[in-house]
Design goal:
two-stranded antiparallel sheet; 5 helices; 29% strand; binds S-adenosylmethionine
């Protein structure tokens, strides 16, 4: 046993690669996941709600887009497949998650358009047309707020962010904090299986 969390920088748990299969918008995905990353054995139910309910980018959507906290890369792979002309930045603190995201981007034929990076390695001048995240609630409220205060302002002026948060993990209070304390426009776009899908704009 180890004390690893899914957001550990360098997981020491056995990798034990496994296949994760899911479908989004009529497209089938088979990706590789592994121990030591978030939702190692399946597509997370919150991520599934996000990918089902949010508005996936149109085929001609421009980037760059950001997958904040990519894990093994399911959101990155869906964005890159939905918008074949866009560059997608996949950011995660967990190096195993980054390696899996890069490998999965290659599996969906998007290796040339997916940039996998640690948070500090994202160029400061990029403005994202879309930001997608199933954010790491377990890091704690203060850290989560700091994360969103860091990345939401990286949206382009007309950019849109899509977030999914479980209601019992504070989805509604996060919604209020974004509006009342941070001044974002937030729409509860969908609610399913206890998850809130939030659409965030300036
Ligand atoms: C809830 S998981 C979602 C993973 C993946 N997007 C999915 O849907 O399966 C959140 C991810 O955020 C990552 N994370 C934690 N803290 C982070 C930070 N400060 N910056 C970027 N990513 C972070 C974690 O390592 C984890 O992979």
């Amino acid at each position: 046993m180890t004390g690893d969390h899914y957001f550990t920088a360098e997981p020491t748990t056995a990798a034990q690669p496994r296949e994760v299969e899911f479908s989004v918008a009529g497209r089938d995905y088979t990706l590789t996941s592994a121990g030591g990353v978030f939702s190692a054995a399946r597509l997370d139910p919150g991520t599934a709600v996000l990918l089902r309910k949010a508005e996936l980018p149109a085929a001609d959507a421009a980037g760059p887009m950001l997958d904040l906290g990519s894990g093994f890369g399911p959101i990155t792979c869906v964005l890159a497949s939905s918008a074949p002309g866009a560059t997608v930045w996949a950011v995660d603190v967990n190096e195993r998650a980054r390696a899996l995201t890069a490998a999965n981007a290659a599996r969906v034929g998007a290796a040339d358009r997916v940039r996998v990076a640690a948070p500090d390695d994202v160029p400061a001048d990029l403005a994202f047309t879309q930001l997608w995240s199933n954010p790491p609630i377990r890091i704690g409220k203060a850290e989560l707020h700091e994360l969103l205060r860091r990345w939401l302002p990286r949206l382009a002026p007309d950019g849109v962010a899509w977030l999914v948060v479980a209601r019992h993990l504070g989805g509604d209070s996060l919604h209020r904090w974004l509006v009342e304390e941070q001044g974002w426009q937030v729409e509860r776009h969908a609610s399913q299986k206890g998850y809130r899908v939030l659409r965030v704009t300036r």
